Amino acid sequence: MAFWLMKTEPDEFAYDDLARLGRDRWNGVRNFRALAFMRRMATGDLTFIYHTGKEKAIVGVAEVVAPAYPDPNVDDKRFVVVDVAPRYRLPRPVTLREIKNDQAFAAWELARLPRLSVMPVPPELWQRILDMAKITPA
């Protein structure tokens, strides 16, 4: 299993929208590096949902429920989508400011490449974010 982060503008599509729908297609990604990451996603992978804009925070966790396939709304096979389903909202959002202030995240794409909309999350950073969000182990 791999871990990811996917960004969304909450005024357009928020974690709560995904929770309400139960499953949805993650589309609209046009950056080729982000698309390459999406092509690596597999069913069962987990992804943080990050709200951009005024929030700038990781707010929830979703699961990839269908791997990358061509975007059915675009006549260009370079553009792919994945299907995701909500898993849980974080008890406490983890802000970009917190991440940038923590040296453990210095090399991570979220701290270095703020415009990249999809990126991998190393397992140790995934756990660190869960700890920051006050997730207690099951």
SSE layout and pairing:
Elements: E1 3-8, H1 15-21, E2 24-26, H2 32-40, E3 46-51, E4 57-70, E5 80-95, H3 96-100, H4 109-112, E6 118-120, H5 123-132
Parallel strand pairs: 1-3
Antiparallel strand pairs: 1-6, 2-5, 3-4, 4-5
Structural notes for this entry:
There is one protein chain. By secondary structure, this protein is of the alpha+beta class. Helix content is 25%, strand content 35%. It has one domain: Roll (ph1033 like fold). The chain has helices at residues 15-21, 32-40, 96-100, 109-112, 123-132; strands spanning 3-8, 24-26, 46-51, 57-70, 80-95, 118-120. A six-stranded mixed β-sheet has the order 2-5-4-3-1-6. The longest helix has 10 residues, at 123-132. It is globular, with a radius of gyration of 14 Å. The model has no long low-confidence stretch (mean pLDDT 95). Pfam families: EVE. It comes from Anaeroselena agilis. This is EVE domain-containing protein.
Main pleated-sheet profile: 6 strands, mixed
CATH class: Alpha Beta
Name the assembly state: single chain
Q: Any idea what the CATH superfamily is called? A: ph1033 like domains
CATH topology: ph1033 like fold
Strand order of the largest sheet: 2-5-4-3-1-6
Q: Total number of helical segments? A: 5
N-to-C order of helices and strands: EHEHEEEHHEH
Helix content: 25-40%
N→C terminal distance: 18 Å
Q: Low-confidence parts lasting 5 or more residues at pLDDT below 50?
A: none
Number of domains: 1
β-sheet strand percentage: 25-35%
Protein name: EVE domain-containing protein
Organism: Anaeroselena agilis
Pfam families: EVE (PF01878)
Domain EVE: 2-132
